[in-house]
Amino acid sequence: MRDKFGREMKTLRLSVTDRCDLKCRYCMPEEGVAWLGKSELLTLEEKIRMVETLVELGIDRVKITGGEPLLYPRLAELVERLSRLSLNDLSLTTNGTRLEPLARPLKKAGLKRVTVSVDSLDGERFKAITRGGSLKKVWKGLMAAEEAGLTPLKINCVVLKENQEDVVELARLTLEHPWEIRFIEYMPVTASVRLERSEGVPPREVRRTIEEALGALEPVASYAHAPSTDYRFPKAPGKIGFISSVSDSFCSRCDRLRLSADGFLKLCMAHADGLALKPLLQEGAPPEVLKERILGAVYHKPEGHAFWFTTPAPGEAMSRIGG
Known about the structure:
- By secondary structure, the chain is an alpha/beta fold.
- It contains ten helices and twelve strands.
- A twelve-stranded mixed β-sheet has the order 7-8-9-6-5-4-3-2-1-10-11-12.
């Protein structure tokens, strides 16, 4: 399954819900978000069918997203059924608020690892960025995930001016834990959340701050199509990744597709291009027709984004795109 630029699609981000129990400043507006109705969402069986079809076309890595995927009531069942497919990786990204009681059941169902969003190690700053989140609750979720074996554990931090001073302490975690801390450049994806460009902090500046405080980083190998460029401190058990989505685009090595909770196959998070699959499922389209339509859409995947120079999708919160 390749696009016209020769990129082979291997990774799927599967959004299971557009709902979230937090409203992070860089992701969602504080109010006015219209959640999708139940009838608009893919059913469990439709989700399974679409993933099965995409796996048959070459997808071998699935990351479950939301919104907040731990709000999806049939998550463990979904994980168990996806774990039967021929996948090299089955992971989940979460805000961690509900992770503590669910870590073991998800591991038992077949989930391999989790990525947790932690934008600050200061409780009050974390609460402000997430608009009400509890760092203590998320930290308990992290510990539960590690104990359950949902590893290697990854932590995502979107770096803004307001949490820039937290990057050193987050990086320091890799000296003590076999975790991967990933610093993400703010991406102006949607019109519903459009922070000023000056609020984001370029990864090169984040790296300089970390190295001035903790010493030089050395490069390490990672998955060839991963969005992050990875490093570690000498002899440290953990890794540090920088995702430079805007200042140093990785579009040329992109291998991912996104399937939204309402069944839209999104080809690039920065473009509206894609294919509405739910109507095809409701019409009873046979497997060969689904595959033909998907291959046709993927072939036209955009070459890359231009975040600050194109008009973002109107009204669509990042939570609906799936990160």
